[in-house]
Write a structure and sequence with these properties.
Blueprint (H helix, E strand, L loop, with lengths): L1 E7 L7 H16 L4 E7 L16 E4 L11 H14 L4 E4 L5 H4 L2 H5 L2 E5 L13 H11 L2 E4 L2 H10 L6 E3 L19 E5 L8 H9 L9 E5 L5 H10 L6 E5 L4 H6 L3 E4 L8 H8 L4 E4 L5 H4 L6 E4 L4 H13 L1 H9 L10 H19 L1
Length: about 375
């Protein structure tokens, strides 16, 4: 039996990385025959129940039984992971955060496990972990494969790290929405979503909203999500005089309701891997206005066809794009009608085929 394990910091978290990893793992498990099994290995798990539902056919285990920072116990962490990989006869270990390569790559020589480094940011970004750049170069030399979310990031790896292993671009999947969306051209609601963090650039979104909402008193803007930047954003919204019109809704359980009732989606991230929020907006046929940040938006939005891409950090250009959509209902309807152009490559079937091809090759090499 072939055993593929996804290695996570904590698979019970509510982040986008955990979300997409569980989506992929669940879909692979649903298609698996009797000779294939999947599992999650976490450094630790803070809660018994994961935020995103995991298929019961997927086993879970942890390196540590309590919250533990692996880097502070590096050699013990490698030893414990080695034991898990050996005991559970893991054939392929997929690191769902490249920083975890530091624990996985030393195992290749002694266990024969194949290691896949799955990049969820992009090659040039090292959010919160400066030594991530070192693990990326290590993966380029020692991993059995690197998976990026975009073709742009694949090129960044190939031109900067000169990897000795294959680099494969496999995007995040776009959900199939049922019942089929109906775009509401009469809507007067703009939505944005994501964790309230520096990466997501909601501080700049407030600046954009300050150039939009005062001109359109019958419109309002909702930000869905929670995070450490909330106090700063609350102060900034109040200072801009946007209280009650630019609203921090916090974490919501009924995201679909907001997408179905929105007129457009706006994203002002400083950087991304491949933003799930844009794929979700696309799935609900929403016109999109987004910073053309590195990487992702340009592979989801066709500028001038189903959305507008503006230079990263350009408040004026972004406000202009939003105002133009507000003032032009025909443009909004046209963008909505073309939302699914070239969406096939984000289909789950297409993405699973790519994962199956990669895993089959690695398993064959290991025999």
């Amino acid at each position: 039996m072939t055993h593929v394990a996804f290695f996570s910091g904590d698979i019970t978290r509510s982040g986008g990385t955990e979300n997409v990893s569980i989506l992929i793992a669940n879909a692979l498990a649903a298609q698996a025959d009797a000779d294939m099994r999947y599992s999650f290995i976490s450094l630790f798990e803070e809660t018994d129940e994961p935020f995103f539902a995991i298929d019961p056919r997927i086993a879970r285990c942890t390196v540590y039984s309590t919250v533990t920072h692996g880097i502070q116990h590096y050699f013990d962490t490698v030893k414990r992971l080695h034991q898990l990989v050996a005991d559970h006869h893991v054939d392929v270990l997929i690191d769902i955060d490249g920083i975890l390569d530091m624990y996985s790559l030393p195992l290749r020589r002694h266990t024969g496990v194949k290691v896949v480094s799955w990049e969820h940011f992009n090659y040039l970004q090292n959010p919160g972990v400066p030594y991530r750049k070192l693990t990326r170069r290590w993966a380029a030399r020692k991993a059995d494969a690197i998976v990026t979310l975009t073709e742009a990031d694949k090129q960044l790896y190939e031109s900067n790290a000169h990897p000795k292993c294959p680099v494969i671009a496999i995007p995040n999947p776009m959900r199939t929405v049922t019942p089929e969306p109906r775009y509401d051209v009469e809507s007067r609601t703009i939505i944005s979503s994501g964790r309230l963090t520096y990466q997501k650039g909601f501080d700049m979104l407030v600046d954009v909203a300050a150039k939009v909402l005062p001109q359109h008193l019958d419109w309002r803007w909702l930000i869905l999500g929670e995070g450490e930047d909330r106090p700063m954003l609350e102060e900034k919204i109040a200072a801009a005089g946007l209280g009650g019109r630019l609203v921090l809704k916090g974490r919501v359980d009924n995201m679909a309701d907001y997408y179905r009732k929105a007129a457009m989606f706006v994203m002002t991230s400083r950087f991304e891997g491949l933003p799930m929020v844009l794929l979700e907006a696309k799935a609900y046929w929403l016109p999109i206005v987004s910073f053309d940040c590195m990487t992702g938006p340009a592979e989801i939005v066709t500028d001038g066809v189903n959305g507008d891409l503006t230079p990263e950090g350009d408040i004026d250009a972004t406000a202009k794009a939003v105002n133009r959509l507000i003032n032009d209902a025909d443009r909004r309807e046209r963008y909505s009608a073309h939302a699914l152009d070239d969406a096939d490559r984000f289909s789950m079937d297409e993405i699973l085929d790519q994962w199956h091809d990669l895993l089959s090759r690695l398993v064959a090499e290991g025999r």
